[in-house]
Amino acid sequence: MSLIVQKFGGTSVGSVERIREVSRRIARTRAAGHEVIAVVSAMSGETDRLLGLVRELAATPKRSEADVVVASGEQVTAALLALTLENGGVPARSFLGHQVRIVTDSDHTRARIRAIDGQRLLDTTRRGQVAVVAGFQGVDENGSITTLGRGGSDTTAVALAAATHADACEIYTDVAGVYTSDPRICPAARKLDRISYDEMLELASLGAKVLQIRSVEFAKRYGVRVHVRTSFGDELGTWVVPEEASMEEVTVSGITLDRDQAKITLPQVPDRPGVAAGLFRPIAGAGIIVDMIIQNVGTDGNTELTFTVPRSELGAALEIARSHCREIGAPEPLADGEIVKVSIVGLGMRSHAGVAARVFETLAHEAINIQMISTSESKISVAIDARYAELAVRALHHELVEKGATAA
Amino acid sequence: MSLIVQKFGGTSVGSVERIREVSRRIARTRAAGHEVIAVVSAMSGETDRLLGLVRELAATPKRSEADVVVASGEQVTAALLALTLENGGVPARSFLGHQVRIVTDSDHTRARIRAIDGQRLLDTTRRGQVAVVAGFQGVDENGSITTLGRGGSDTTAVALAAATHADACEIYTDVAGVYTSDPRICPAARKLDRISYDEMLELASLGAKVLQIRSVEFAKRYGVRVHVRTSFGDELGTWVVPEEASMEEVTVSGITLDRDQAKITLPQVPDRPGVAAGLFRPIAGAGIIVDMIIQNVGTDGNTELTFTVPRSELGAALEIARSHCREIGAPEPLADGEIVKVSIVGLGMRSHAGVAARVFETLAHEAINIQMISTSESKISVAIDARYAELAVRALHHELVEKGATAA
Prior knowledge:
The structure is a homodimer.
Chain A: E1 3-8, H1 16-31, E2 35-40, H2 46-57, H3 63-87, E3 92-95, H4 97-100, E4 102-104, E5 113-116, H5 119-126, E6 130-134, E7 137-139, E8 145-147, H6 152-163, E9 168-173, E10 194-196, H7 197-205, H8 213-222, E11 226-230, E12 238-241, E13 252-270, H9 275-285, E14 293-297, E15 302-309, H10 314-328, E16 334-346, H11 353-365, E17 372-376, E18 379-385, H12 389-402
Parallel strand pairs in A: 1-2, 1-9, 2-6, 3-6, 9-11, 10-12
Antiparallel strand pairs in A: 4-5, 7-8, 11-12, 13-15, 13-16, 14-15, 16-18, 17-18
Helix pairs in contact in A: 1-3, 2-3, 6-8, 7-8, 9-10, 11-12
């Protein structure tokens, strides 16, 4: 007998019929001899409806109260699923965040989990009941309701799996698993059977919206085996697991595309300490996240500085860059909102110069100019003109995934 | 400085605009120098929407889970009102049943309040914040969410007023107060300025749907002064207060009409002990509430037994009566689904034979036959043919309210 945490996202519980289907799936899992802790999101559309009410009433709502409103969505789904299970002869009971209890800090609307008491859930499953937990929500030390931020139900599920030492955490969603690229752009993309935590972190942060990034961090830290799979069938999905020995060979696990990129270039700034800090400090202060940064030192004692920000922040970042240039007497900065970032994700990539070389050759062969490059232990990212986005993804996928990263 | 509990029903918080209006009203109350504890219902229609989901998923849902679903309605309104107040510069925070805490028994969907800790709310108002409490909900000893049954927010408000020793409990609703009769039937009906708890209990149980009956029982037990008034304007409504000396004079406070009545007559049953018990025991066992009962002993050792039940229960009650008659060898019972009950409510009525006499004269004058009569300390009820319902209400209102009960 094993203990499995099953998490069902908004589309998986989006209607009365879908909730019945989830109930039947849990019944089958129990019939196969497993104990189940279920974690549910709000019915799809419900969180947006509730946030709509909040925003109509207050442009900048008190976050602790917004949390109380929004947490009601998961509360409703958890109880609906529990009573559907009971109606089908499966003993069940619902748990809200404060009943589990899932203790978080008090950073409302994006709280972080501090501690979970898994005992009540284990007592429940050992009595033969399914524990149905409202995802996304917790409670702070003062007893106030908190929420974990968008996609927080994934984190709830993985954290509960860690706290109860569950054998696996199944994330049911509306896609079949993690793909080597976006199938809408790259028809040759295929589903991965397994992927390491680190690769998944790169994929998650690069826009593959399958798993919330914090849930992957949690899974890595506590060694939770996560299985991402579809709620619309019984096919196996993708296992997100610890790195294995056989993984040491360089394999490219995926090509991702991030369209939310805009570029700012300061063509000529004095090359002396503190200049970059003087620019990036006010940008960070404005809450703008800078992604890629490159700096070319010229021969004339000046340097060219280029960085990327989310497109929605381009105006604000440009304003700060302008006033900085005026202060230091540098020429006006240049902006480009028409770039994208393509990333090649795979373990051990930095140490294999061969992969980087093949990336550059592939793009050169398609006459695509690389504007910026950044690398990490498990990814190579290039910023290119937005026009070539799909072409670059397909070419890199063909060369590095379909042919194989070590086939060169 | 006084402490006022203000309760807002579903129509009073039924839209974003109505919630803003409630927020402005609370701000005005505070500006006038009062501390406020607000109690809110779910937005109108929301409870029915949630119950609809529950019933689609389970014909006989587990009641503890149904409570978790339905309680979310008041949770949303409480937080929306709190953040609207904050947005308007009025410090506020929301409280759910388990946060207050409002401890109830475990009789889910119709729980009764056992204890309330008013201290957290008093601490909140003393800090200058408005406490906004989700009505209708509590928590049992095990930490499970409970609800108090339809209209339970009235009870929450009155119970909080008792627990915090508030100076008044204002019930804001979509009517202007308590009327001497239903204005749709009796255009001469007028709003009462004040009414005693006992009269209000009679009016509430007789179908004047202004206040939940349990909230009036609560108010009477703890001496809470309740003010029922409209949320659509600033006019004073009706005070529900302890009986006062000046009330000893007989005054008729209202004429009510209950259409949910059906009559069953056993024309000839043996007049011996145990016969009535043998009939009413299985009827009570079937959960059917018997209202009026009359029994006429004849000269032949037989008796005629007539009683009323809610119309929806007529079929079930008749079935039980039939099998009882067969058992004791009595003739078949007769059923009449076309009767109504008209009640004249007022203090000290039983001891004033004059009022009863005027009731009978008034109905006789309109050629309305009285089929059954029952009286209590503060009401006289008559069952009549449904055809004459409105005529009887208007005639009795004219004679006993407009002319005055003691004017004869």
